[in-house]
Amino acid sequence: MIKIKDGVDLLDLLRRSGFTAYELRKQRIIGEARIQKLRKGELPTWKELDFICKNTAYQVGELIEYIESRKEDD
Tens digit of pLDDT for each residue in 21-73? Predict the structure, then answer.
């Protein structure tokens, strides 16, 4: 399973880099529906992740992580 790392708020990282939710919508970088999904902790699209990394100086591995799923034997 891939998830956003604990304690990482992608919209807050963008806000600290000068991109408020309003600016993201106004400049058509990320639409309202996707902003709402990011607020709920859903994974960003590759395009969004690319934009976030370019504008926040974070690497992908600092934002998301892979957690191995446990398979329960029946």
Answer: 999 999 999 999 999 999 999 999 999 999 999 999 999 999 999 999 887 65
Helix (H, G, I), strand (E, B) or coil at 2: strand
pLDDT on residue 74: 46
Please write down the HEC assignment for all residues of 16-60: HCCCCHHHHHHCCCCCHHHHHHHHCCCCCCHHHHHHHHHHHCCCH
Contact (CB, 8 A) for 17 and 9: no
Q: What are the CA-CA distances from residue 51 to residues 24, 32, 45, 71 (Å)?
A: 11, 16, 10, 34
pTM: 0.84
For residues 53 and 3, give the distance between their C-alpha atoms in angstroms, rounded to a whole number. 16
